[in-house]
């Protein structure tokens, strides 16, 4: 198992390695519970992780500065992503028919990405921007 993790680390980010091993460990835990295997080989693996792997979060001033340094279209996408948490696929898949400027609402449909029809708008909790 340790050798496999070393192999993963050669081509993947540490956060991805942790995700992969965590998933495999969960699968093995279920297999142990179902008595399909005697033990979870991932059980004693020590993976790097913790706070130093957290992604930095830009503050509103940093987002505005970044948006000001790129083209206006890219700036709009940067601000929209920062204000809504939309993913790249959702941003590029956004259609005007799903934008309600007066109501301050974007409707993200399942085909746009991972939010699966969830509405994102002015009332969304946790937005750094009013």
UniProtKB/TrEMBL annotation:
GO terms, biological process: DNA integration; DNA recombination
UniProt xrefs under InterPro entries: DNA_brk_join_enz, Integrase-like_cat_sf, Integrase_recombinase_N
Keywords assigned by UniProt, alphabetized: DNA recombination, DNA-binding
Key word Metal-binding present: no
Domain of life: Bacteria
Any GO MF annotation of the entry: DNA binding
Gene3D superfamilies (UniProt xref): 1.10.150.130, Intergrase catalytic core
Name of the protein this chain belongs to: Tyr recombinase domain-containing protein
């Amino acid at each position: 198992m340790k050798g496999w993790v070393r192999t993963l680390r050669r081509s993947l980010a540490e956060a991805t390695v942790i995700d992969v091993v965590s998933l495999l460990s969960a699968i093995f835990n279920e297999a142990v519970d179902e008595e399909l295997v005697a033990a979870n080989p991932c059980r004693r693996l020590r993976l790097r992780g913790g706070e130093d792997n957290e992604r930095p979060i830009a503050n509103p001033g940093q987002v505005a500065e970044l948006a000001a340094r790129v083209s206006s279209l890219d700036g709009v996408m940067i601000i929209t992503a920062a204000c809504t948490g939309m993913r790249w696929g959702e941003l590029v898949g956004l259609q005007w028919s799903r934008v309600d400027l007066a109501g301050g609402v974007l409707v993200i449909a399942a085909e746009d990405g991972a939010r699966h029809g969830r509405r994102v708008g002015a009332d969304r909790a946790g937005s750094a921007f009013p």
